[in-house]
Design brief:
three-stranded mixed sheet; 44% helix; 3 helices; elongated; 73 residues; alpha+beta; Hypothetical Protein Tm841, Chain: A,domain 3
Length: 73
């Protein structure tokens, strides 16, 4: 997860996170922790925290977490 947060900070330099969602594969606790960290980074709550689709979950594995965000200049 630290790599994900570092990447978000890197690609977000000079930009604003307009909003984001957190997706998880049967890992609500991990998703809630990710949202806490994203609130620290962005100052915003996630628009949505959802269970990832079965197809993606099957490939990513049980417990996976993803963050999808929209950036503005």
């Amino acid at each position: 997860m630290n790599k994900i947060y570092d990447h978000i900070l890197k690609i977000g330099r000079g930009k604003t996170v307009w909003n984001y969602i957190i997706l998880h594969a049967h890992n609500l606790e991990g998703a809630q922790k990710a949202e806490e960290k994203m609130i620290q980074i962005t100052g915003k709550k996630a628009v949505s925290v959802v269970n990832i689709s079965p197809v993606i979950g099957m490939h990513a594995g049980n417990g996976a977490i993803a963050i999808s965000l929209l950036l503005t200049n």
